[in-house]
Amino acid sequence: MPGPAFYTLYELLKNTQLDLSLENMSEEEMKKIELSESKVQVVGLSIAGFVAHLYKNRIQLFGKSEMDYLRTLPMDEQLRMSETFLKEKPILVIFTYPEKPADYFKDIARKYNVPLMSTTMISSVFTDYVRDILNTALAPTVSLHAQLIDVLSVGMLIMGESGVGKSETSLDLVMRGHKLIADDFVEIKRLSPNRLIGSCNEIGRNFIEIRGIGLVDLQQMFGITSVDSEKEIDCVVRLVSWDEIHKFDYERVGDKINYYEILGVKKAYYIIPVRNGSNLSSLMEAIARDYLLKKMGFFAAQEMEKRLDNKLKGLKGN
Question: Is 211 a catalytic residue?
Fold first, then answer.
């Protein structure tokens, strides 16, 4: 099941890419407020009193246009419009360069317990940065018992029962020049409708467990090019012992693409029977090449079918 995705205002505040300053409240209070919406909203007409389309769970960006509008109003109207906006209790208001919240605005924000921050970036630049950060931080996430390997630039998620040979296969692939991303547990995020990014947690990064040897640090053993921190998942491979293969509908001809679904995203799916002596690393390289060819529209089974058709037509012509 996907895990909950939350990102506190404190984490946002401390992200150095955003260059944020806290304008009211305390850092401890920021730790208790969680964002669950990756979209941001420009305050716009909300500061003019039209709050029907204000999404209070989204960060509200307060820029030069909004402040210039307030400055055209007498002070009593500035107070009234500010209160009309802030009593909606948006989760966070960020003032973009060159603006800062006025003292009266801070007082009203404190009254309604609305956090205020400011940044040295202009609105258009800040919007791009914060959306990218929130899309990653709040992406749906799941952890799977699997290996993730970069084989010929194909992100290959290798699954299977314990003892079927996943780690040994991954080690052999690294020795052939491919890259390990994660061993045993893969953390997967959905960053867009059809993109899955897999990574390893910080503690287990670069390590692989090999029965009979124990933990091996691949970066120390084979160099920095043998590992990577994350990789987009392109296909899923399930290794199945020969005794259990009857439980699975594995492909014999290869004239179609099977799919495995993770976080609502379907990825090409290969089920591989495993018996003693199987050369699994060669099979993984063959799968990577097969995936790339099918992605380009070439299916070996269809090519064989065309040849058979042409042969039969030639026989009929004789």
Answer: no
